[in-house]
């Protein structure tokens, strides 16, 4: 059975409840190693009124214990969740785990703790010195994000032909997709320059990537990239029947349609890295943490299943 290092996420949020409630199902798929100290686990389990399963295997993240405050954004929880994530990655790079699955962290809590990253993907980029790609989705529809955790006003200046060409090639190689819809940036994909002209950069990158892929040495002989597509019609039912892989130019362009259609079952995958990392597609859900609310567990279980499918 594959060993999956599970970072525990922000302990003021719903991650630990998911870990405890789903343990027996996860255990049928893999050997989970949970990056949490017994003291913190007992505290959370007591607040949740849940038993700790006997075969719940722990590894210490080596972080300061703290008092859990359900639904509160705080530095201690941010610090702990980052240590848990970092230790999970280390287990993997040192060969003690086959992959990492991350429970959700809170970005403001990381900032309050002085963690210099916006999220897991950003941290992985730095740990490995590689252009990690953020992709979310499910078999019906995966979305790769060319830019992700930057303010919207910085998106136009991040448009760059060489960088986008590399992104497209990496995305294609990592997913193996043979048809990829690439979205424009502006309304109506610029409408021939009437509403903006970043599409020229996108067009050039698509041409470059299609040309490079058509190199006779490549296994793929078609032109996998199509676009720049008009963003407001890129996700119509007909387009989603045709394409299962999309590249969005910014976070919400891709994640609004995905989460509107598939929030329950989607996952987050970090591509283009020496390790496999998956995650849930939702956040810390502070509004329902420790409230015995009905949790959706599909995203978490699918994130573990994806690891098993890819590592077997
Ligand atoms: N993988 C990650 O670490 C990850 C992913 C997304 C968001 N985040 C972070 O989480 C924090 C909170 O984000 P947010 O409030 O925008 O989004 P959120 O996903 O935490 O919550 C949005 C809504 O969905 C509900 N929800 C989320 N997950 C649920 C589940 N499993 N079952 C039932 N209901 C669920 C919440 O109760 C809330 O009403 C932010 O800091 C965000 O950046 C982290
Ligand atoms: N953009 C992700 C989402 O909306 O689900 C989320 O913020 C997680 O990002 P990291 O994988 O970088 O933590």
UniProtKB/TrEMBL annotation:
Predominant place of localization: cytoplasm
The stretch of residues making up the signal peptide is: none
InterPro entries documented for this protein: PdxA_epsilonprot, PdxA_fam
Coiled-coil annotated spans: none
Of the GO CC terms on this record, one is:
cytoplasm
Q: Which GO terms describe its molecular function?
A: 4-hydroxythreonine-4-phosphate dehydrogenase activity; cobalt ion binding; magnesium ion binding; NAD binding; zinc ion binding
Which enzyme type, at the first EC level? oxidoreductase
Q: Which GO terms describe its biological process?
A: pyridoxal phosphate biosynthetic process; pyridoxine biosynthetic process
Which co-factor is required? Zn(2+); Mg(2+); Co(2+)
Which keywords are on file for this protein? Cobalt, Cytoplasm, Magnesium, Metal-binding, NAD, NADP, Oxidoreductase, Pyridoxine biosynthesis, Zinc
A Pfam family of this chain? PdxA
- Report if keyword Zinc is assigned: yes
Q: What is this protein called?
A: 4-hydroxythreonine-4-phosphate dehydrogenase
State the organism of origin: Nitratifractor salsuginis (strain DSM 16511 / JCM 12458 / E9I37-1)
Encoding gene (name): pdxA
């Amino acid at each position: 059975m594959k060993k999956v290092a599970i970072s525990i996420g922000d302990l003021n949020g719903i991650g630990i409840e998911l870990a405890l409630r789903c343990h027996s199902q996860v255990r049928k798929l893999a050997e989970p190693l949970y990056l949490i100290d017994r003291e913190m686990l007992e505290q959370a389990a007591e607040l949740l009124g849940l038993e700790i399963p006997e075969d719940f295997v722990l590894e210490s993240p080596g972080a300061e214990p703290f008092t859990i405050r359900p639904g509160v954004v705080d530095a201690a929880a941010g610090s702990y969740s980052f240590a848990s994530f970092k230790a999970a990655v280390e287990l993997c790079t040192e060969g003690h785990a086959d992959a990492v699955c991350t429970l959700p962290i809170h970005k403001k809590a990381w900032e309050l703790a002085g963690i210099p990253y916006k999220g897991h993907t950003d941290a992985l980029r730095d740990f490995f010195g590689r252009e990690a790609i953020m992709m979310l989705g499910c078999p019906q529809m995966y979305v790769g994000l060319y830019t992700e955790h930057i303010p919207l006003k910085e998106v136009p200046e991040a448009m760059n032909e060489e960088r986008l060409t590399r992104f497209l090639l990496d995305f294609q190689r990592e997913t193996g997709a043979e048809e990829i819809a690439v979205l424009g940036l502006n309304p109506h994909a610029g409408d021939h320059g009437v509403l903006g002209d970043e599409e020229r950069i996108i067009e050039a990158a698509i041409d470059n990537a299609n040309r490079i892929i058509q190199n006779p040495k490549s296994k793929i002989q078609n032109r996998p990239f199509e676009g720049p597509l008009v963003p407001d019609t890129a996700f119509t039912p007909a387009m989603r029947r045709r394409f299962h892989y999309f590249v969005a130019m910014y976070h919400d362009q891709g994640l609004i349609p995905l989460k509107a259609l598939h929030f329950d079952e989607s996952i987050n995958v970090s591509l283009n890295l020496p390790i496999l990392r998956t995650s849930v597609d939702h956040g810390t859900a502070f509004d329902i943490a420790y409230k015995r609310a009905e949790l959706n567990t599909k995203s978490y279980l699918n994130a573990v299943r994806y690891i098993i499918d890819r590592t077997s």
